[in-house]
Write a structure and sequence with these properties.
Order of helices and strands: HEHHEHEHEEEHEHEHEHEHHHEHHEEEH
Strand content: 5-15%
Shape: globular
Structural class: alpha/beta
Number of helices: 15
Length: 402
């Protein structure tokens, strides 16, 4: 490979909650026992260096020592338009349809504020990204869950009948789509999105589409932007994208929305401007320009090969070698969601005890119960393959077969 996805970086003291949250001083997670170094598999960032062009663009700008107020550069919009066309086949996107967001969740709140009222019900699939749960509750919106289910081939599916019933029974006017879906890793097919949007159109439901994972598509799957499905979706969807997952740039807080409806676009811009929180960071702008170069796409291609290999390793173990688990093979993202209900009941162990058993040997996996299910764990597979193999080996030797 041209790019380095094998180096194991020491991130201690380098502003990474993924490692500094383990043990003192923050104590978010228990420190492993003696003899085991931590393998971070919880926070949804990557243990890979970003594409070199990001650092190069930022470094070039840092050569000029003034950092005052600034307009958004034309290259910023051109980069997004080109990237969306190359990656997702998007045609007709213009600068006027694009707006900066200080994070996808902040954008979701702004969108909710213009599409419905505090106290309204909002349709969200479950398992549910914990960020949605906290954000909606903190801002006065009620979540109505429509559960996904594993079919006979262990593929996560939408329950369209349940979705429509929940919309009607709860007077729902806004639905949040996670496309691709976190935490299950499902990459929705066009036909699935069409069926969902038919329901939304029939009941005049606006769509908020979180497409932050849209570049992390594994194997031969293809991302279908929600707005591309039909005219209703095009005009009634507010979609959000970001650099954070694709290029490991969460700390730079660079996200953006795409809105085609002039009415919704003006409303969203106004809403996000009211608290003055939504000002773009100068260096984040240059990071996006660097990331969306041709080299960024080349780097991403190699990253996806590594993530696919890591996903194969995890899936082959939990789905084929460990009895008592339920898991769908992720088609996108780098998260891995496992249900241990049968395993825990058979072995008379709680999910908390299972989590701590992994933590004690340095496998810092994440409690998945906040996402959905009483016995679930979420695992981040975005580390060098050697570390993923080591994590599975430790679990096999010290947790499941001790």
């Amino acid at each position: 490979m041209k790019y380095d996805f094998e180096t194991i970086y020491d991130r201690v003291g380098k502003d990474a909650i993924a490692v500094d949250g383990i043990g003192e001083p923050f104590n978010i997670m228990d420190k492993p026992r003696e003899g085991f170094d931590p393998i971070s598999m919880w926070v949804a960032d990557m243990n890979f260096a970003t594409v070199p062009t990001v650092v190069q663009e930022i470094a070039k700008r840092l050569e000029h020592p003034l950092f005052g107020y600034f307009p958004t550069r034309k290259e910023y919009f051109d980069s997004i338009i080109s990237w969306q066309k190359r990656r997702n086949g998007v045609e007709g996107l213009e600068a006027k349809n694009i707006g900066h967001e200080n994070g996808v969740l902040g954008g979701v709140v702004s969108a909710l504020n213009i599409l419905c009222s505090k106290g309204d019900n909002v349709l969200v699939h479950s398992p549910t990204y914990i960020g949605f749960t906290k954000t909606l509750k903190n801002n006065g919106y009620n979540i109505v869950h429509s559960p996904l289910y594993l079919d006979e081939n262990d593929v996560w599916r939408m329950d369209y009948e349940d979705m429509e019933k929940k919309i009607v029974d709860n007077n729902i006017t806004v639905a949040i789509m996670c496309n691709p879906h976190n935490p299950t890793g499902r990459v929705w097919e066009r036909e699935e999105l069409e069926r969902a949007i038919d329901i939304f159109e029939r009941h005049h439901v606006y769509i908020i589409s979180d497409e932050i994972w849209s570049d992390i598509i594994l194997y031969d799957n293809k991302h279908i932007p929600t707005q591309s499905v039909n005219e209703y979706a095009h005009e009634n969807t507010i979609a959000f994208y970001a650099l954070s997952k694709t290029f490991n740039l969460a700390a730079l807080v660079e996200a953006y929305h795409i809105v085609y409806s002039d009415y919704l676009n003006k409303r969203l811009q106004k809403e996000s401007s009211l608290p003055h929180y939504n000002e773009e960071n100068l260096l984040s702008m240059y990071a996006l320009i660097g990331a969306y170069k041709d080299e960024g796409e080349e780097w991403l291609g190699e990253l996806l090969q590594v993530l696919a290999e890591n996903t194969d390793i995890a899936y082959d173990y939990f789905a084929k070698k460990l009895e008592g688990t339920k898991v769908g093979k992720p088609e996108g993202t780098y998260m891995f969601f496992v249900d241990f209900e049968d395993y825990c009941k058979k072995n008379n162990i709680t999910i908390k005890e299972l989590l701590k058993a992994g933590w004690s040997v340095g496998v810092m996996w994440q409690d998945g119960t906040a996402f959905g299910g009483e016995y679930t764990i979420r695992m981040n597979l975005a580390s060098p393959t050697a570390r993923i193999k080591e994590a599975i080996e430790r679990l096999d030797k010290y947790v499941f077969n001790k």
